[in-house]
Amino acid sequence: MENNGSNPTRKAGAQRLLAAATVVVLTALAAVPAAAAGQPAAARRTAVQDAPAPGAAARHDARGALLALTPLDRTGRAAVADFLASGGMDTATVRYGVRAYRLTYRTITPQGEPTTATGLFVLPEGGAGRLDLVSDTHGTMAHRDYAPSVGEDFGRYAPYLHASAGRAVAAPDYLGLGKGPGLHPYMDTASSVTASLDMLRASRTAALRLGRPLTGDVYASGFSQGGQVAMALGRAIEDGADRHFTLKALAPVSGPYDIENAETPGLFDGRINDTSAVFYMTYFLTAQNRLHPLWKDPSEAFREPYADIADGLFDTNHFEEEIIPALPATLKELLTDDYYRQFQHPAGALLAAVRAQDGTCAWKPDVPVRLYSASGDTDVPIANARSCAADLAERGTRAPVVDQGAVDHNHTFLASGPQIVRWFDTLSARH
Question: What is the pLDDT of residue 27?
Answer without folding.
Answer: 32
